[in-house]
Amino acid sequence: MHHSVPKVVMIGDSITQDGSWSRLLRRDDIVNRGIAGDTSRGLLRRVDRLEPTIIKAFIMIGINDLIWNKSLEHIFDNYIQILDRLKSKSITPIVQSTLYAGKESAKRYNSHVEVLNSELKAYCKEEGIQFIDLNTILSPNGQLDDRFTIDGIHLESEAYVRWAETIKNFL
Known about the structure:
By secondary structure, this protein is an alpha/beta fold. The protein has helices spanning 14-17, 21-25, 40-46, 63-67, 72-88, 105-127, 135-138, 157-167, and strands at residues 8-12, 30-34, 56-60, 92-96, 130-132.
């Protein structure tokens, strides 16, 4: 597959990084800018370095912030700045829900993930930004389904297939 000019970016942490987005979405204009271990602050710091040809950005970030005990306010404030920076560069942001954790991690993080997603969804509605709730597909019972996760945080290949299927209509 020859690579065309990048128009769409998938940006986030290892959960995003581990997706083979061009293959999954059958497009050669998608770049993967997920970085393992990244946080909302890290993403904010690198958003200005995106390719100038990008017109849409699919964002998912936040679970590593929670692992590092960052406050919901900290994550949400960084998210707003990320969205503002993208819009200022004429990039259409599309927020994807922070995924619930599964297995042993669920009890520790999911109440925070729920609040974060609720705040993000409300903010996106207010600002006219698309919000895609991936938890309805991957975490139907309020935690990441065991068949979709390797370790309670990271995803199995079937989860990526379902994720791609969910977002393809937003491209």
